[in-house]
Specification:
The protein has about 130 residues and is α/β, with parallel strands linked by helices. The protein is built from 2 helices and 6 strands. It has a 6-stranded mixed β-sheet with strand order 1-2-3-4-5-6, covered by helices on one side. Strand 5, helix 2 and strand 6 form a beta-alpha-beta unit. The longest helix has 12 residues. It starts with a strand and ends in a 14-residue tail after the last strand. The mean pLDDT is about 85.
Length: about 130
Protein backbone atom coordinates (compact mmCIF):
# COMPACT_ATOMS: atom_id res chain seq x y z
CA UNK A 1 0.00 0.00 0.00
CA UNK A 2 1.39 3.39 -0.95
CA UNK A 3 1.72 6.57 1.03
CA UNK A 4 -1.53 8.37 1.74
CA UNK A 5 -1.78 11.99 2.78
CA UNK A 6 -4.40 14.71 2.93
CA UNK A 7 -4.02 18.48 2.82
CA UNK A 8 -7.03 20.68 3.49
CA UNK A 9 -7.47 24.15 2.00
CA UNK A 10 -9.97 26.64 3.33
CA UNK A 11 -10.64 30.20 2.25
CA UNK A 12 -13.75 31.11 4.20
CA UNK A 13 -17.10 31.86 2.64
CA UNK A 14 -15.76 32.27 -0.91
CA UNK A 15 -14.15 28.89 -1.30
CA UNK A 16 -15.10 25.97 0.81
CA UNK A 17 -12.95 23.03 1.76
CA UNK A 18 -10.79 21.47 -0.91
CA UNK A 19 -8.50 18.56 -0.27
CA UNK A 20 -5.38 17.09 -1.88
CA UNK A 21 -5.21 13.32 -1.65
CA UNK A 22 -1.91 11.60 -2.33
CA UNK A 23 -1.45 7.86 -2.83
CA UNK A 24 1.17 5.88 -4.73
CA UNK A 25 2.88 9.11 -5.83
CA UNK A 26 -0.34 10.36 -7.49
CA UNK A 27 -2.02 13.54 -6.31
CA UNK A 28 -5.71 14.34 -6.67
CA UNK A 29 -7.26 17.68 -5.79
CA UNK A 30 -10.93 17.43 -4.86
CA UNK A 31 -12.40 20.91 -5.24
CA UNK A 32 -15.68 20.19 -3.44
CA UNK A 33 -17.81 23.33 -3.12
CA UNK A 34 -15.41 25.85 -4.56
CA UNK A 35 -15.89 29.30 -5.98
CA UNK A 36 -13.18 30.85 -8.14
CA UNK A 37 -10.28 31.70 -5.86
CA UNK A 38 -6.60 32.45 -6.26
CA UNK A 39 -5.90 30.27 -3.20
CA UNK A 40 -5.08 27.49 -5.67
CA UNK A 41 -2.15 29.33 -7.29
CA UNK A 42 0.46 28.16 -4.74
CA UNK A 43 -0.49 24.56 -5.58
CA UNK A 44 1.29 24.78 -8.94
CA UNK A 45 4.37 23.25 -7.28
CA UNK A 46 2.36 20.33 -5.84
CA UNK A 47 2.35 18.42 -9.18
CA UNK A 48 -1.37 17.63 -9.08
CA UNK A 49 -2.29 14.77 -11.40
CA UNK A 50 -6.09 15.05 -11.31
CA UNK A 51 -8.30 18.04 -10.48
CA UNK A 52 -11.88 17.15 -9.57
CA UNK A 53 -13.71 20.47 -9.79
CA UNK A 54 -17.31 21.69 -9.57
CA UNK A 55 -18.69 23.24 -12.76
CA UNK A 56 -22.40 23.74 -12.01
CA UNK A 57 -24.78 25.50 -9.62
CA UNK A 58 -22.99 28.82 -10.25
CA UNK A 59 -26.27 30.59 -10.95
CA UNK A 60 -27.36 31.96 -8.46
CA UNK A 61 -24.63 30.73 -6.05
CA UNK A 62 -21.65 32.49 -7.65
CA UNK A 63 -20.04 33.10 -4.25
CA UNK A 64 -19.95 29.36 -3.55
CA UNK A 65 -19.56 27.64 -6.93
CA UNK A 66 -17.33 28.31 -9.91
CA UNK A 67 -18.50 28.15 -13.49
CA UNK A 68 -16.84 25.78 -16.01
CA UNK A 69 -14.38 28.39 -17.28
CA UNK A 70 -13.28 29.33 -13.75
CA UNK A 71 -12.85 25.64 -12.88
CA UNK A 72 -10.64 25.18 -15.94
CA UNK A 73 -8.57 28.26 -15.08
CA UNK A 74 -7.99 26.98 -11.55
CA UNK A 75 -7.20 23.40 -12.66
CA UNK A 76 -5.00 24.35 -15.60
CA UNK A 77 -3.40 27.73 -14.94
CA UNK A 78 -3.40 27.84 -11.14
CA UNK A 79 -2.86 24.18 -10.24
CA UNK A 80 -1.26 22.81 -13.39
CA UNK A 81 -3.23 19.56 -13.17
CA UNK A 82 -2.75 16.98 -15.89
CA UNK A 83 -6.35 15.69 -15.90
CA UNK A 84 -9.75 17.27 -15.19
CA UNK A 85 -12.92 15.61 -13.88
CA UNK A 86 -16.07 17.76 -13.56
CA UNK A 87 -18.58 17.44 -10.71
CA UNK A 88 -21.68 19.36 -9.55
CA UNK A 89 -23.39 18.94 -12.87
CA UNK A 90 -26.27 17.14 -14.57
CA UNK A 91 -27.10 14.74 -11.73
CA UNK A 92 -29.93 16.91 -10.44
CA UNK A 93 -30.86 20.56 -10.90
CA UNK A 94 -29.02 22.65 -8.31
CA UNK A 95 -28.92 26.08 -9.94
CA UNK A 96 -31.06 28.01 -12.36
CA UNK A 97 -28.71 27.60 -15.33
CA UNK A 98 -29.99 25.04 -17.90
CA UNK A 99 -29.00 21.54 -16.75
CA UNK A 100 -26.84 20.86 -19.85
CA UNK A 101 -25.14 24.28 -19.84
CA UNK A 102 -22.14 23.50 -17.57
CA UNK A 103 -20.99 20.42 -19.52
CA UNK A 104 -21.64 22.10 -22.87
CA UNK A 105 -19.61 25.14 -21.75
CA UNK A 106 -16.83 22.89 -20.41
CA UNK A 107 -16.61 20.84 -23.61
CA UNK A 108 -16.55 23.99 -25.75
CA UNK A 109 -13.80 25.59 -23.62
CA UNK A 110 -11.44 22.68 -22.92
CA UNK A 111 -9.45 23.16 -26.16
CA UNK A 112 -8.14 26.46 -24.74
CA UNK A 113 -6.37 24.70 -21.87
CA UNK A 114 -3.56 22.16 -21.45
CA UNK A 115 -5.40 20.06 -18.85
CA UNK A 116 -6.98 16.92 -20.35
CA UNK A 117 -10.70 16.36 -19.84
CA UNK A 118 -11.02 12.66 -18.97
CA UNK A 119 -14.74 12.54 -18.23
CA UNK A 120 -16.85 14.68 -20.54
CA UNK A 121 -20.31 13.55 -19.41
CA UNK A 122 -22.06 11.98 -16.45
CA UNK A 123 -21.90 8.19 -16.39
CA UNK A 124 -18.47 7.85 -17.98
CA UNK A 125 -15.57 6.35 -16.04
CA UNK A 126 -11.85 6.94 -15.59
CA UNK A 127 -9.28 4.75 -13.86
CA UNK A 128 -5.93 5.71 -12.43
CA UNK A 129 -4.42 3.06 -14.68
CA UNK A 130 -5.22 5.40 -17.56
CA UNK A 131 -2.25 7.63 -16.82
Amino acid sequence: MGKRSLKWLYAGWRSYNAVIIEKNRKKILFGGDTAYHELFKPLKDENIDIAIMPIGAYNPWKKNHCNPEEALIMADEHIGAKYFIPIHTKTFKQGIEPIDEPLTWLNESIANYKVELVIDDIGKTFTLDSF
